[in-house]
Specification:
By secondary structure, this protein is an alpha/beta fold. The protein has three domains: 3-321, TIM Barrel (Alpha-Beta Barrel); 337-555, Rossmann fold, CATH 3.40.50.1700; 573-658, Sandwich (Immunoglobulin-like), CATH 2.60.40. It is built from 21 helices and 21 strands. The strands form six sheets. It has a six-stranded mixed β-sheet with strand order 10-15-14-13-11-12, with helices on both faces. It has a four-stranded parallel β-sheet with strand order 3-4-6-9. Strands 5-7-8 form a three-stranded mixed β-sheet, with no helix packed on it. Strand 16 (573-579) and strand 17 form a beta hairpin. The two termini are 49 Å apart.
């Protein structure tokens, strides 16, 4: 079976205008050739999105905190089952519209270099290796393991050197040296291409060293095709090709921009610029050979997905899989493993507590479960509901304040502070759910904070929440502070004064149950921070500066509030007997559960030295294992060769093993 040959033969039958029409994301039907209309735009960041009911898994930043790529593959496999089930239903209408197809524009493997970036919670964090491992796991789950057919097409985005600010993404020109690109911004893309073979790459909005990403000879030809030997297709971000003339001012017209992008290798346009391809052709800006090659590659992808096959093995997946019990079990486990315990003075897990106060604007919030680019669960559990259902004693709830509006500035607005104080005074222990939500950090146009286009101006909690925090703390009751956010927040006061501090990234539909089980000790927390939590934004370089000096655990020289990889358990672990012979790519060690409870231990392996005086250390391997109290296990973990090659002095490279 040759999908390429089938595509070539089909394209030969098309007229020029028919070919050009198929390079748009909203490709129209060609009825005389029995080609149905197809919309290439589909989303599955953490579940099938924008297509009705679906299992909503934790936001990617939370799944990264699990440090569990095997579990992430299970998540993505569940997502691809639901996506296929939906497609199998939608195609009965004779065509598929937007968000109803098989070509998914996920995952987002950009590096979360600055906590102010609104879209950072779509990523797998600040480390290239963790991003690469988790990205591969997600791609493999989406695309399936059939040797002939693709279950879905996965698209890694946004290529490249893209992580805010959102407000300038359409015209920004990022000036960056090649060494930093290779070491940070391109690393996960290359890793995913080599190890997981993603079907597509999406270009970014910005320019890099003067070249628009979606029309960059350097990025798309030299780096992606020639150096990376990439064989898939490239799609533009939505409106990015129009940006080339409208905002970057590299060209004058959409026709010129479309020709520039197509010639560079961006063959599928999300947006409207490719509607000008006929004008570009008439002006001699593109050739028949370029057009034929592009259309053929896209139809080869459609053939591989089984769109024109009489029978494809994935055609048998039915809607019964959507939100099925198996997917809910996977979802709950991932939510549990995404929670990070940052501080505990012994108040957790809750025991001997009869009266529990649940307070805060995020306690009973659906948006904080869903994140962004989300589907719509028919069943979900907020944090409040999770504790109400699981706590054996009495639970009282008070919202306490609005998420970000300070009632003191609006005399007509209800002031919920006194209710919160009374509720706290009644209780033995207070669980305070605060933080952000996806309306406060997100993509340009999605978040309410239009002045920052979805980015955060700083790392501070809103004044409304600061006021509530002080009021509840003033009651003298033990406070378990649960910060719900997709990014780092200034938690200095909470670290000092809270009885316990828990970081919950947007945890999906099962989030309330997962958090309740952790607070009550039914589940031992095992999440680790995939990003650095800084003391404040004053510790950071300017947001617009893409140099890595002073950013992330690899290059930050200050004292973080909580470092990358940090996370506590209800038990303790130790590691010993570390051996690495002759600078081999494997490290053997023994890890022991030295505490009173069974739990999951994440072991992180870092490289340091080796001629890399510019960085502190670099993650090169990790493993997660379950240990009973007193149990020891000897493990051998391979160090990533692609990380090792970034250290020019192998003999001087040391390995740090941390639990």
């Amino acid at each position: 079976m040759s999908f390429h040959t089938d595509a070539v033969e089909l394209v030969k039958k098309m007229t020029l205008d028919e070919k050009l029409s198929q390079l748009r994301y909203d490709a129209p039907a060609i009825e005389r050739l029995k080609i149905p209309a197809y919309n290439w735009w589909n989303e599955a960041l953490h579940g099938v999105a924008r297509s009705g009911t679906a299992t909503v898994f934790p936001q990617p930043i939370g799944m990264a905190a699990s440090f569990n790529p095997d579990l992430l593959t299970c998540v993505a496999t569940a997502v691809s089952d639901e996506a296929r089930a939906k497609y199998n239903g939608y195609k009965q209408f004779g065509s598929t519209g937007i968000y109803q197809g098989l070509t998914y524009w996920s995952p987002n493997i950009n590096i979360f270099r600055d906590p102010r970036w609104g879209r950072g919670h779509e990523t797998y964090g600040e480390d290239p290796y963790l991003t690469g491992r988790m990205g591969c796991a997600f791609i493999e789950g989406l695309q399936g393991d059939d040797p002939t057919w693709r279950k879905l097409d996965a698209t890694i985005k946004h290529f490249a050197v893209h992580s805010g600010p959102e407000s300038t993404r359409h015209e920004a020109d990022v000036q960056i040296d090649r060494e930093t690109m290779d070491d940070t911004y391109l690393w996960a893309f290359r890793y995913c291409i080599e190890h997981a073979d993603p079907s597509a790459v999406m270009g970014a909005y910005n320019r890099v060293n003067g070249e628009p990403c979606c029309a960059s000879e350097t990025l798309l030809q030299k780096i992606l095709r020639e150096e990376g030997d990439y064989q898939g297709y490239v799609v533009s971000d939505c409106g990015a090709i129009h940006d080339i003339n409208a905002h970057h001012h590299v060209t004058f017209t959409d026709a010129e921009s479309a020709a520039m992008a197509l010639t560079a290798g961006c063959i599928l346009n999300c947006g409207f610029a490719f509607r000008s391809l006929r004008e570009a052709y008439d002006q001699g800006l593109i050739t028949d050979e370029t057009v034929d090659a592009a259309v053929t590659k896209l139809f080869e992808a459609r053939f591989r997905l089984g769109m024109f096959a009489e029978r494809c093995p994935y055609d048998s997946i039915t809607p019964d899989v959507i939100e099925c019990e198996e997917h809910r079990v996977i979802n709950r486990r991932m939510a549990e493993e995404s929670v990070v315990l940052l501080k505990n003075n012994g108040v957790l897990p809750l025991h001997g507590v009869q009266k529990l106060a649940v307070i805060g604007p995020n306690a009973d919030s659906l948006p904080v479960l869903l994140g962004n680019y989300n589907g719509y669960p028919s069943r979900y559990t907020t944090f409040l509901r999770g504790l109400q259902e699981a706590f054996p004693g009495e639970v009282r709830y008070a919202k306490g304040c609005h998420l970000y509006i300070d009632s003191r500035k609006n005399p007509w607005m209800e002031d919920l502070t006194r209710e919160a104080i009374l509720t706290a005074k009644w209780a033995d222990v207070v669980v305070l759910f605060m933080g952000l939500d996806p309306s406060m950090e997100g993509e340009e146009g999605d978040a309410f904070n239009g002045a920052n286009s979805g980015d955060k101006a700083d790392l501070q909690l809103p004044e409304s929440q600061k006021r509530l925090w002080k009021a509840v703390l003033g009651t003298g009751k033990p406070v378990i502070f649960v910060n719900v956010s997709g990014s780092a927040v200034d938690l200095r006061q909470q670290k000092e004064k809270a009885a316990a501090l828990v970081q919950v990234f947007y945890p999906g539909a099962e989030g309330g149950k997962a958090v309740a089980d952790i607070l009550l000790g039914k589940v031992n927390p095992s999440g680790r921070l995939p990003v650095t939590f800084y003391q404040s934004e004053e510790d950071l370089p300017p947001f617009e500066d893409y140099r890595m000096e002073g950013r992330t655990y690899r290059f930050f020289r200050g004292e973080p509030l909580y470092p990358f990889g940090y996370g506590l358990s209800y038990t303790t672990f130790s590691v010993g007997d570390i051996s690495r012979k002759d600078y081999e790519q494997e490290v053997t060690f023994t890890v022991t559960n030295t505490g009173p409870r069974a739990g999951m231990c994440t072991v992180l392996l870092y490289l340091t030295g080796g001629g890399r005086d510019d960085l502190n250390k670099q993650l090169a391997g990790f493993v997660k294992t379950h240990l009973k109290p007193g149990e020891s296990r000897t493990l051998t973990v391979g160090l990533c060769p692609e990380v090792l090659e970034r250290f020019p002095d192998p003999e001087g490279t040391e390995v740090l093993v941390e639990v």
